[in-house]
Amino acid sequence: MPQPAAFHDLGALRFDGGAALAPDSVDRVRAAVRDSGVRDLYIVVHGAHNDEEVGAAVDGAYRRLLAEAWQDAPGRAGMLSVHWPSLCFRDEDLPGVEQRPDGAEADRETLDDLVRHLPGHEEELTRIVALLRDRSDHETAFDDFGTQLRRLAEVPLQDPVAPFASDAEGEIIPQSDPLMLFEDTRTMCVEFAGALDDLRRAGDTGSARPARHEDGRKGPDVSEEGTLAEIRVAGPRPARPLSERVARAGTVASGGPLGEQARTADQAALWDGAHELFRQVVRHMLRRRAGFIGELGLGPALPGLAEDSEVRLHLVGHGLGARLAGFALRGLESGGAEPVMLSSLTLLQGEMSHFAFADSLPQQVSGHGALWSLQRLVQGPLFCTFSHLDFHLGVLYPLSAQMIGDSADLTSIARKWGALGFDGVQGVEGPAPVCLGETGKEDLRRLPYLNVDASEVVHTTDRPFSGHHDVMHPEIGQLLRQAADVPGGAD
């Protein structure tokens, strides 16, 4: 008699930029699920789909992580990948992918990836990459660079992807244009160059450390910025952020020594900052796309996967993929009929606002998170891992997420524009966070969500994205296993 597979590979759902699936895709997966006998199906969404080779390598890393967690229950679980037109720059330490040395080859590969995934923008992309390669010392080079970035990112108001730039709704003045595209380009290059230098200095001094120890106790120097409710729910933040740039009140344009810095900045450092600015503009474009495909593509497709079977759906999103997975909740609800309930949702280092689930925005007189109240569509656990040592989400994301017209000069950039994957779900009543490995002590059937502090295993080294992708740890695998082992949903 043949032995059951230890862990089932159910292939992939492939969405195009218009959120469309190939015909019969859902029927094919549903049949495969039924034939396999899988009881728990993990639907995994990440952002590293540069090409088939890179996507397959990262998919494989997640599959191995889950297979190890399920090795004691052969045949019970499987994984379905979600492929969508997304990419990561080739220097981002992607799991399962051989690290390319920086240089002309990596630049060519990245340009090919960008042209493939951002169709219609070859002219702007070619010019941007040429400017980054040449590193001209002419002032007009930065003006040209900024112009090309704005052309790259702009979309007409009637474009269906346009409304998906923000993680908030209901504001008096909706905000959808990132400050980094409209502030002086040289100033933004200085800002990102300084942030990268802050990363190097944090590594040299050893000052980067979690704000919560493994046993759950507060660290000796923690910040309690925020309302009392937020402090209880989100827990302590690091007293010394990874960069003081995000501890400032207001925006980059709010004043300070930036003008003088821009005049005296080292040219090589400026172009390093320009490269990071370029990456963050691309990620802004991909965040828009992730929300669009999540709500209009994946969300409506999920009910069909479970039709005529007892399979339980466990949605897992990492980084950009976490935004796609989160917005899939909106697609579940907008289907008209009674929405299917997810058995669990896990957001690993989510690249979206930490107020995405909030019923009100602490710094606004109106508005709420784009996913407000949608945690009710998750029958079982909603896990959100966060790390105070994820440099991308702790520093680069809030700098890039700021919107023009922001006037909240009394709150820090990190608090208003912070990410789920840096300090967890905020603005929602719920339990205090727990450390990774301690979730078994909680009654997950009764909790609306749980913030899980993964700072002890997810941490940046000397490269800004090394920590963001560093989720392939057995402890993360066990967290995903635990999401399926909870017998019922929240009461």
UniProtKB/TrEMBL annotation:
<feature type="region of interest" description="Disordered">
    <location>
        <begin position="201"/>
        <end position="241"/>
    </location>
</feature>
<protein>
    <recommendedName>
        <fullName>Serine-threonine protein kinase</fullName>
    </recommendedName>
</protein>
<feature type="compositionally biased region" description="Basic and acidic residues">
    <location>
        <begin position="211"/>
        <end position="221"/>
    </location>
</feature>
